[in-house]
Structures are given as structure tokens and as C-alpha cells.
Amino acid sequence: MTDFETFLAETLPPLGLAPAALIRRNIRRRIMRRMESVGIHDFSSYLQFLRRNPSEWDVLRPLFTVTISRFFRNRRVFETLASQVLSPLAAKGNPVCAWSSGCASGEEAFTLRILWEELPGKKPDLSIVATDIDEECLKRAGEGLYPESSLREVPGEISDRYFGREGGRYRLREEVVRSVAFRRHDLLCESPPGDFDLVLCRNAAFTYFTVPRRIAIVEAIAEALAPGGCLVLGRTEKLPREAAAWFFRVCPPHNIFRRLSPVAAVRG
Question: What CATH number corresponds to the domain at position 132?
Fold first, then answer.
């Protein structure tokens, strides 16, 4: 194996990451930049540095995940989410709680808020918690300022209503930015940050994490979701087969799953 392959063999298992974490070519470059910042120039020395400095693992792990996000990413999924999930929730008249896990710079959470605002008629309160492990991403989310590329799937009339041009970028309406609560959260080792009617966990845990970690996470999400609540995954992601005890797929071909029944009852 190359030095880099040896490094990966040593570091991926403790981090709970699967080889899919390496599909982007710039992963190696990101790690090398981090090494250079602490005065290290080879992977074997960096391994030794990790062993001597346990806190460095918290710096390393975000380097393996690549943030690719934009408003209305995979637009048809959001159209289905609005008509088949959000609209029925609004019709019940009860306050709704949603969680955007692995929220990157907030695009997904803000898209959810926009969809809710666009539903016709009077609606109950919707509270949105958006979490990510990357504090820089969370900081950008709080600014609400985005490049044009982040809006390429946004319908024109939505863009006009919710964004204003600011130089070469776009500013999201302040009341929308304020409507989402952003928190740092580590999905691998922390419990869900509340109880929810809807959870979006797209292109994160079920792409980058090992199967045992995915099983633990889907169980934790099931316990945090109200019966009948929905979980949304990324377009190419799959739930582990163990999740059949808690979820069934609705709205094919999209990866939208409904909570089947209380976990305790399933365990019997």
C-alpha cells in the first residue's frame, strides 16, 4: 500500500467512515494542507501526530466529507416533499418540528422553510433545527449570503421573492435566515437534538458512514421521529435492511420514508 492508503486504513475505522468518504479527489489535498499547517509533510508522521494529540481527530474527520449543497437540490424531491409531506402536516393544524441533519451552509433547511411559507392558507408553526459538524459551514449559513450557483435549481418566482442581489451574490431574506436554529452536532456520537415530525438526512450518514454506524443512526432517528413522521435520504442512498423494522418507503421513486411504528413495539 502507498503511505496514503496505509494512513486511510488506520484512520477510517476509528472515525466510523466507509471508503465512500474517499470518492472525491480533493480529500488527499485537504488532508495535506492540514498536515502542512502543523508542520508535517508525510502521512506516517501525521499518524504519529494523531496518536499523540487525540483532539486532532476532531479536526481530521470533517476533511473526509465534501460539502456539496444548493437550494432545492434534486428539485423534484422537494416538490414531492411539499405536496405529500408538508401539506398534510400543515393541514393537521399542529406545530411541526423538522431537523436538517448535515445541513452544510443551510441551503436545505432554508429550502424547507421556503416550501412551508409557499403552502397556501393558514399554517401552524414550523420549527427547524439544522445541524452540521463543520462550524465554518454553520457560520456561512448564519450569514445567508450565497453564490449564484447555489440558486441554480430555485424557481424564478421563488428567487425573486426570497433573495436579493448583493454584488455578485444573493442575500436570503433576513426573516428566513432567523427562522432556522443552527447548531453544531456530531451525528456519529450525539443523539438527535429533539423530537421531530420530519428529518432530512441527505448525502451524509448513509453515504460516508460504515454500516454499523448507519444502523445505529437510523435507530436513533426512528426513536426521535413521531409515529408517522418522515425521513428523507439522498437520491442514491439506501437504508440498511435493519431499518425495515421502523420505516417503509413512500412516494417512489424518491427516498422518502415514513416511520412505521414505535421502536419498542417492534422489538416486542
Answer: 3.40.50.150
